[in-house]
């Protein structure tokens, strides 16, 4: 995927209007507590953006999946706190349904009272912080420890609150997971 200037991407997105809201909420899910602008919707983007790629604009809390030339599905996300924001190019090298989770040593060091009890890990399931699905981001064959994943805290969407990962509403990450094959390029700005 060619490097995309953030300003150029924003210009293409700002020029486009929302085409249609996508109904991406399971019938059994509780009402979402996210702002309407963070619900998935089709938006216009530059036609030269690589179809099938993902671009994340951390400062705006949006993930764009380029669905077809000139059109992306935009999802609201939560991102890492300022000092923990991941930036750069990566690729989806692993995908897991109901992933298990283990805090990184850095997370335990930063907040032992919160994370030490999970040092041995937590099995996947509805109470797991990685939610329903996880896309594992790698650079040059190495795991970055950054994930695009679901969340048990949908109210965090539109905020910089995580330890670096990109959080999505569970039903939204399930939708994205179904669209994204292994090897998908991801640009995080």
How would you describe this protein?
The protein is of the alpha/beta class. The chain is 16% helix and 30% strand. The longest helix is centred in the first third of the chain and has 10 residues, at 6-15. The radius of gyration is 16 Å and the shape is globular. Residues 1-8 and 10-29 have low confidence and may be disordered.
Notable characteristics:
globular; disordered N terminus; 189 residues; 4 helices; alpha/beta; two-stranded parallel sheet; 9-stranded mixed beta sheet
Summarize the structure.
By secondary structure, the chain is of the alpha/beta class.
Low-pLDDT residue spans = 1-8, 10-29
Strand ordering within the main sheet: 1-4-3-2-11-6-7-8-10
Largest sheet: 9 strands, mixed
Radius of gyration: 16 Å
N→C terminal distance: 14 Å
- The secondary structure category is alpha/beta
Mean pLDDT reading: 85
Q: Tell me the number of strands.
A: 11
The run of helices and strands is HEEEEEEHHEEEEHE
Q: What portion of residues is helical?
A: 10-25%
Q: Tell me the overall shape.
A: globular
Figure out the total of helices. 4
Share in β-strands:
25-35%
């Amino acid at each position: 995927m060619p490097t995309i200037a953030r300003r150029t991407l924003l210009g293409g997105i700002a020029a486009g209007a929302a085409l249609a809201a996508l109904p991406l909420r399971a019938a059994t899910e509780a009402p979402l507590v996210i702002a309407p602008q963070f619900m998935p919707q089709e938006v216009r983007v530059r036609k030269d953006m690589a179809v099938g790629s993902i671009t994340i604009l951390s400062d705006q809390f949006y993930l764009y999946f380029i669905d077809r030339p000139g059109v992306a599905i935009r999802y609201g996300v939560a991102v890492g706190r300022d000092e923990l924001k991941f930036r750069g190019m990566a690729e989806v090298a692993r995908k897991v349904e109901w992933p298990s989770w283990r805090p990184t040593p850095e997370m335990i060091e930063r907040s032992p009272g919160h994370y030490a009890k999970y040092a041995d890990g937590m099995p996947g399931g509805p109470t797991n912080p990685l939610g329903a699905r996880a896309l594992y981001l790698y650079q040059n064959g190495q795991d970055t420890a950054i994930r695009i994943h679901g969340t048990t805290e949908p109210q965090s969407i539109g905020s910089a609150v995580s330890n670096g990962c990109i959080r999505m509403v569970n039903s939204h990450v399930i939708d994205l997971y179904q669209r994204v094959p292994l090897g998908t390029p991801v640009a995080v700005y």
